[in-house]
Amino acid sequence: MSAAASRPAAAEYDGPIVDCDVHAEPSSPDEILPYLPSEWSLDYLRQAGRTGPAKLMRPDAAPESGGPAGSAPELVHTQLLEPLGIDRAVLSPGTLVYAPSSPNPYYAAAMARAANDWLIDRWLGDETPFYGSILVANHLPEVAAAEIRRAGQHPRMVCVVMADNALGHPWGHALFHPIYEAAAELGLPVAIQAGGFGGVNPSPTGGGPPSLDLEQGTLAVQGAMNALVTFITEGVFDHYPSLKLILLEGGVAWLPGLLWRFDASFKGARREVPWVKRLPSEYFRDHVRITTQPPEIPPGYEHIVELLAEVGAQETLMFASDYPHRSEGEPLDIAARIPAAWLPNVLRGNALATFRWPERGN
Amino acid sequence: MYDGPIIDLDVHHNWKSQDDVMPYLPKGWQDYVTAPGPTVKQPMSVSMGFVNPHGFFREEGLLEDGSFPASDPVEVARRHLDASRITRAVLTHEDVLYLDALPNPFFAAEVARAANDWTADRWLPADSRFRASILVSNQLPDLAAAEIRRMSSVDRFDQVLMASNGIGKPFGHPSLDPIHRAAAEAGLPISFHVGAPGGIAASPIGFGYPNYYVEFHTLSCQSAMTHLVSLIAHGVFERYPALKVVLVETGSAWIPAILWRLDANYRARPSDTPWLKRPPSEYFRDHIRATTQPLETPEGIERLWHLLEAAGGEDVLCFASDYPHWDSDPVDFIEESLPQQWLPKVFHENACEVFGWSPDELEAEAATARGANTPA
User: Fold this and answer.
1) Residue B184 burial (CB count, 10 A)
2) Do residue A170 and residue B262 have CB atoms under 8 angstroms apart?
3) What's the CA gap between A302 and B28, in Å, rounded?
4) Could A268 and B326 be called an inter-chain contact, meaning their C-beta atoms sit closer than 8 Å?
5) Residues of A with CB below 8 A from B327's CB?
6) What residues in A contact B169, CB-CB < 8 Å?
């Protein structure tokens, strides 16, 4: 039986799929406590009691036995992996991914470490389809680099992930480079999850921080744009030529417009950044991977996909479901909106070439 | 070739030095400027700390005495309006434009008043094609509103203008309501020119200040994106149904993607913003216009057309040159870069609608100018 026997779309590609963005949640805060130094327990429990992302979640993804959406591996299997034919899912630690938004650098680092150890123990068994993301708090980049070198020893940790920006500078800034150096050293790509609202973060949007959910959800794209542009202008890929940047949940439809603009701005001001040797759009193709969730392009505007083709989408787009977050339509809707010829790359090939899979080693 | 009227929504007029505007400040604030001593003055403008290393101005804008480009009304009229067949030009300031970022909010409000009076006195009389902006500082919205009311009755002050973010909130936030209200009551559009880093301004890009000019130039569209979403999400256009907004110097290729995302998020949870009565993109089409510069230029310019069509295309764009900056878009370039059938709307009809100007009057002025330029 082909992996995709039961999936409705994507008839042109029936091989297995790699899902680059699945959120694994602890069943309860108690599940995290054994991994956290006891001095931080109260801080964590207080924070865990405050988080209430239920309205963002698929209502059917919470197990009947109790616990939040995304906390039961068997539901991930029956709701996501089996129906879509996914044989590899890259997990990030659910709402814990935002624990490093705490202004306290020591608590943030302890939480990141606890999230990594929990993810490894609870989800990343040898026979599972699950792979993990190393969460780091970037308040103290050297501490983050040490955590990458520690948690990166686990063969199923396949990338680094950050959602919050504690340094108050664009993502490519030299202050972050110890993190990227450690990731490059271990062959791990760095994923930036769009967002960065509240807590320790500076305004993640230009022109001031928004206040409504509608504004935040829409403007989260700016974090992805910021990482794409400043990794290139600040020379991250020149320092670490093997490094890949993955943009999560930042959408894709803005990409052609931004790259047109970026190349033009660079041509007009390149003397300022002499370490940037090629057009920004060329760095993008070689080093940046962008996930499909949310696809943004509404039905009727499929011709916009041609613009994505021009900037290299076939080699740079990677499928992500964002499970168990709710979104408009079905996770695989993207497959119907891009050319069939792209599907082997977008649904699998690009991800296989990007993450540090166990069989690739270091 | 397009030979109709051309309205330019972004012509940066400048002082030769801030001393030009000094006499328009009240005596007490003049003392504030000169008090630091004979060699140091309080600056009336804010530096962003970097410029394009290849130069910031088009060379042809430099004056013979070496003074700042676009600091002489007669020269601006000759070098730009005459040369580019501009029928009307909206003056948008230069050094003083970013006064929202001056640390002293009361001083910023006074500098805005002085800059407006200086423009009325020194620029508008020089050429009938000039139109002026009511420059305000957004740090203290009540003072900005008072300035809008003071200047709105002055002939040829046809829009409200803000650039940098001195209040730290996106421009749809209710703390700016006095500005929205005053503009709506005066029947004037609000022009949001791209803001700059520097002074006390909120960063024009996300995640802190940019380190390099190229980062600012590439990502400065983010502030326009934020303001667009903020104005719509906070229901500003429900409160002020006649209000129009123009986004200046922030490009346009980003607009379709942000509208798609905004509509999708609104559809997902309309109850979060119950004051909205329609999909967000409809407010955009009815109330917001974007200027052409800097026009994104993919290889194969028709790709840009296809993208912009998704956001209303010819109904949304208004021409702006950004004279005299290095990255300004000349009239000829826009003429070649957009579909011919878009040009009447982009060059004047859309702006006429925003400003309540008569297209017939513009046509007549353009015809007169064509006649004047025809060799006898």
Assistant:
1) 20
2) no
3) 62
4) yes
5) 268
6) 208-209, 211
Cβ-Cβ contacts under 8 Å, B168 against chain A: 208-209
CA nearest B10: which of B373, B359, B369, B351? B351
Q: Which residue has the tokens 């959408």?
A: A251
- CA-angle at B46, arms to B43 and B47, nearest 5°: 115
Which residue in B has a C-alpha nearest to residue A174's C-alpha? Answer: B211
Question: Closest Cα of chain B to A149: distance in Å?
Answer: 26
> For chains A and B, what is the number of CB pairs under 8 angstroms?
249
The ipTM value here is 0.89
Tell me which chain A residues have a C-beta less than 8 angstroms from the C-beta of B204.
206-207
> Contact, B267 vs B217, CB < 8 A?
no
Which residue in B has a C-alpha nearest to residue A260's C-alpha? B298
- Are B207 and A234 a contacting pair at CB < 8 A? no
B303 and A256 within 8 Å at the Cβ level: the answer is: yes
Distance CA B277, CA A43 (A): 42
CB A188 within 8 A of CB A246: no
For residue B209, give both structure tokens: 């200040």
CA distances from A118 to A48, A100, A172, A189 (A): 15, 16, 29, 21
Using CA atoms, how far residue A216 sits from A208, A221, B280, in Å, is 11, 9, 14
Prediction pTM value: 0.92
Q: What does each of the 362 residues of chain A score in pLDDT, given as a tens digit?
A: 344 445 655 567 889 999 999 999 999 988 999 999 998 988 888 777 655 555 667 878 888 888 888 899 999 999 999 999 999 999 999 989 999 999 999 999 999 999 999 999 999 999 999 999 999 999 999 999 999 999 999 999 999 999 999 999 999 999 999 999 999 999 999 999 998 898 999 999 999 999 999 999 999 999 999 999 999 999 999 999 999 999 999 999 999 999 999 999 999 999 999 999 999 999 999 999 999 988 788 877 877 888 999 899 999 999 999 999 877 778 888 888 889 999 999 999 999 999 999 987 54
